Amino acid sequence: MSKLEDEDWLYTISSKRKLIDFNFAEIWRYRDLLMLFVKRDVVTVYKQTILGPLWYLIQPLFTALTFTLIFNKVANIETGTVPPFLFNLAGVSIWNYFNTCLTATSDTFKTNAAIFGKVYFPRIIVPLSIIISNLMKFGIQLLIFIAFYIYYYLNGADIHISNSIVFFPVIVMLMGILGLGMGMIISSMVTKYRDLKFLVGFGVQLLMYVSAVMYPLALMREKLPKIAWIVEYNPLAYIIETARYMLLGTGTISWSGIVYTVAVTIIIFLLGIIIFNRTEKTFIDTV
To answer: 27, 215, 264, 281: which has the fewest C-beta neighbours closer than 10 Å?
Structure first.
């Protein structure tokens, strides 16, 4: 046996992988590359734009304002003691994090085919970098929400932060993991079914309306009890409702809903890893 065969290899690249393979050790070894992808995602998105990072702020503000005019002023949806604009801004800010995570990761294989075809690195790094970079964008939008929160509070609005706010990072993490899992599933399917890409944007918009972004979950149960089950089976609705309760003290926390959300998130995430790992072996032949 040759000396080379006796040596221990630092890296072993093989097509044979476990059904669920999330190699944290390998991801850690490539952490510098992960940070480079994060920097790329943050810097290049609004490069050569007039307003640059201000788009992080403009989009949620205009969306919250539009929801306030349409759903609260025209459709007369009540938000209790919470100012409608602040109610909508909280929902929009949380939703935007999931939305950007899902839509960006859903095109992973197609947009990075040139890189994947030339050099090896853990492919999971790319969608992970998207989740982290969008977390930075979410932090900026959260600061804007805090600014408006202080403004309304100083003007006498009946709002308060719940003691459960300490678990807010867990809610954000659930939103990111759910977006990552769904994004990996869709990205893997897009490699074979190109037209699915055109349905993603449309589907995400529909999903927003059944995720309790612009209305309280209790209102759906009261006004439309026959179709409320659509919203109640949507784990995103519980995430957004719980986040609003933590930030504004409005709505309720459903522990059964949270348990259901955690279970669905874990299942979708694991399913996403399985499909993603299987697709990365052969996607270069179909993209």
So the answer is: 281
Among residues 280, 120, 271, the alpha carbon closest in space to that of 183 is found at 271
Non-local (6+) Cβ contacts of 225 within 8 A are none
pLDDT digits (tens, 9 = 90+) for 219-232: 888 888 888 888 88
User: What does the pLDDT read at residue 1?
Assistant: 45
pLDDT above 80 for 283: no
* Six token digits for residue 230: 């659509």
Instruction: Quote the pLDDT of residue 44.
Output: 72
